[in-house]
Amino acid sequence: MKKFDAILLCGVLEYSGAIFGGSDGPDKMLSGINHLLKPSGIAIIAIENQLGMKYLLGYNEDHLGVPWVGLSDYHLDHSGIRTWTRSALENLLSKNGLSESRWYGSFPDYKLPTAIVSDDLWDLKDGKQLARQFVRNPISDASSSPPIWSDTLSFWQLILQTESPKDFVNSHLVVASKSKLDESSFLKDGLIWTGHGTRKKKFSTSATLHANLNGLEYVHENRFAEVVKEGALHLQRNQVAVIVGENMEDWIISRSSSGTLVEICEVLKVWWDEALVILNTNINGGINFDVLPRNFVRDSKSEKWIFIDNEWTWHEPVSNSTILLRCLFLLFQERLNYLGIPKISESKSLGETIYELAELVTGNKIDVDFNKFVAFETKIMAAATSVNDDGRINRVLKLLDVNLAELQVDAKAFRQ
């Protein structure tokens, strides 16, 4: 019988009960794989987690298309299709001779990952904080929507407060063997691997977070020239030190959840003052326009806010007011709406609220209309991703006229 160095099961083990027609299906599949592997061979398994965060929030179970079924341990389904918790899967592998294993969390899942986290990260003193900083998209599922909308990043922060966050990742990536594993034979050294697959090829990037004798290092894979250009949009490889600390977006939200518009404005002023320093700095004829709150981290040692995402620059005239409106809209779109903060101004539209906040933050009348901000955002998206969606402009402008109370009801439309 031919033996193999590696066998890949990507979204396969879940169907073993249906394939073999019984509850012993997973054992049959794994024992068969064990026999097909060379003594030092590896099985690479990508699989959803039965206790994944998105399942806890009520997203549909990936294989069966209904929510909560995995949380009832599949007693309401008799198809034989299922997945497992981390400990149950570990026991299943060991039971069938694959007792040596290395585990990684895949975010938002194994199908289209943007971040992969090694178990080694959780052993670091700042491991949980680093996971929050580098896993920007912990939960996502284009195929279903949960019955109750939640701010996924706030939920991710809650999971990071538990004893074992790795038990709740949406997908596991497991390398298992019947003999001692040599990790260097199948993986480059690292703690976190990140990548962006939705951009144009020339803008596509990947990077690895390493721990070495000098501390933490975030290393980009340079697959392109030092500066890549598409019209006014430039991307440059600017290496910055790894800053461990609180994300400014989280800081703003933690101080805004029960405040008035004026109180929220006082928090936003801290961010905008930092953003203006960046915007007023010329970078080879352009500006670092992507001054969203999430791109600032407070250094735990100096207590200073550090701008960490300085790769993108824009090389056409654009006003600070346009960038301010863009940042406030994206902050509402991605976080604030799900936390109920807009309810402080339910009698106003989203656009009116953003304008009011912008004028309170700057202390001046904002003379830029939303058409300019949406046109600016559309140019960025078209340059970076080839997505030139004029329909999105109309959808965004329409949403800006919607009463905030209605947006609370139709959060899905708001996300789009």
Summarize the structure in short.
The chain has 416 residues and is α+β, with helices and mostly antiparallel strands. It is 33% helix and 18% strand. The strands form three sheets. Strands 1-2-5-3-4-6-7-8 form an eight-stranded mixed β-sheet.
Which characteristics define this entry?
eight-stranded mixed beta sheet; 14 strands; disordered C terminus; about 425 residues
Q: What can you tell me about this protein's structure?
A:
This protein has 416 residues and is of the alpha+beta class. Helices cover 33% and strands 18% of the residues. It has 14 helices and 14 strands. Strands 1-2-5-3-4-6-7-8 form an eight-stranded mixed beta sheet. A three-stranded antiparallel beta sheet has the order 9-10-14, with helices on one face. Strand 9 (227-230) and strand 10 (233-236) form a beta hairpin. The chain is globular.
Number of helices: 14
As laid out across the biggest beta sheet, the strand order is 1-2-5-3-4-6-7-8
H and E string: EHHEHHEEHHEEEEEEEHHEEEHHHHHH
Largest sheet: 8 strands, mixed
Helices and strands: which structural class?
Answer: alpha+beta
What percentage of residues falls in helices of 4 or more residues?
25-40%
Instruction: Give me the count of strands.
Output: 14
Q: What's the shape?
A: globular
* CA gyration radius, whole angstroms: 24 Å
User: Taking all residues together, what is the mean pLDDT?
Assistant: 86
Distance between the termini: 52 Å
Low-confidence stretches: 408-416
What portion of the residues fall into strands of 2 or more residues?
15-25%
